[in-house]
């Protein structure tokens, strides 16, 4: 059995579907099982809240051999969660980290520090581990959904910023391979990106093509950015986030072939993601 934390998130949900499709029993941990909706056959949703006492969490991991660990799963109790997982039978942990940890010069950035600490807890746990360090998620494009539903102009900073957005299901595919074949991936940090670099304005245009519309990106100065432009970023974190984006404008983004190397097929393009998720940008979408 594989335990998946963050099972209602973009990567976690895709991973549950992939594992279940391969006939692997899955225990999907979530703070609110109602949010999990209908899970595929072979997957069960279990209410989970981390505590400081491993014994109180042991039942969530009983009978499991593998764990997919999301940053938010353990919070301040990550070490206790890992103790509970080991006691329950888990021997291998696949961690959803971040590509920022590849860059030691980023130490001090909140995203770096949080994921480096998570990796540190796992290294210290005595469990076998694989770290997945994805770059920008294609799903981050949903931050433009409200503007796109309202018109043909998207306003935001850094039109020329180049990123290599990765499909959430490609991250899940790499995670699945690491969980199902731990011997081949133990002790490995996989940096995971999409197949090509795109500017912000190019991503917006590709969403427009998927919708059959001519979308335009209008750059605004960083000091004109409002929190609604980045709804997935906590407002107090926005200045640090914008500063890190601005510093990357003239840099080449990380670009890897990990998806192809691990899964045997190429990573999906952002245009493919946009086609698959076009309904998210149409009027009436939640």
From TrEMBL:
**Domain NAD(P)-binding, chain residue ranges per copy:** 6-182
Organism lineage reads as:
Bacteria, Bacillati, Actinomycetota, Actinomycetes, Kitasatosporales
One Pfam family name is: NAD_binding_10
- InterPro entries reported for this sequence: Ergot_Alk_Oxidoreductase (IPR051604), NAD(P)-bd_dom (IPR016040), NAD(P)-bd_dom_sf (IPR036291)
Stretches of the chain forming a coiled coil according to its record: none
Q: The organism sits in which domain of life?
A: Bacteria
This protein's name? NAD(P)H-binding protein
């Amino acid at each position: 059995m594989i335990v998946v934390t963050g099972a209602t998130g973009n990567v976690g949900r895709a991973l549950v579907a992939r594992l279940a499709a391969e006939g692997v029993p899955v225990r999907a941990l979530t703070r609110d099982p109602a949010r999990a909706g209908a899970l595929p056959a072979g997957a069960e949703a279990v209410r989970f809240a981390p505590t400081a006492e491993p014994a109180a969490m042991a039942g969530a991991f009983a009978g499991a051999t593998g764990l997919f660990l999301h940053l938010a799963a353990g919070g301040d109790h990550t070490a206790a969660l890992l103790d509970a997982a080991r006691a329950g039978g888990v021997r291998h942990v696949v961690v959803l980290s971040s590509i920022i940890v590849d860059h030691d010069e980023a130490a001090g950035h909140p995203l770096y520090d949080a994921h480096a600490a998570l990796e540190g807890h796992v290294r210290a746990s005595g469990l076998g581990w694989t770290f997945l360090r994805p770059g920008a998620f294609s799903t981050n494009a949903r931050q433009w959904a409200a503007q796109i539903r309202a018109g043909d102009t998207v306003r935001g900073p850094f039109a020329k910023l180049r990123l290599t957005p990765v499909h959430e299901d490609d991250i899940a595919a790499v995670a699945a391979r690491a969980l199902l074949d731990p011997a081949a991936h133990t002790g490995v940090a996989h940096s995971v990106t999409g197949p090509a670099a795109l500017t912000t304005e190019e991503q917006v245009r590709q969403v427009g093509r998927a919708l059959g519309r001519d979308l335009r990106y209008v750059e605004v100065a960083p000091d004109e950015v409002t929190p609604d432009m980045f709804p997935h970023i906590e407002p107090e974190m926005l200045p640090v986030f914008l500063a890190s984006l601005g510093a990357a404008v003239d840099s080449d983004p990380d670009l890897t072939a990990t998806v192809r190397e691990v899964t045997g097929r190429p990573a999906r393009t952002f245009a493919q993601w946009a086609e698959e998720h076009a309904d998210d940008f149409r009027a009436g979408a939640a």
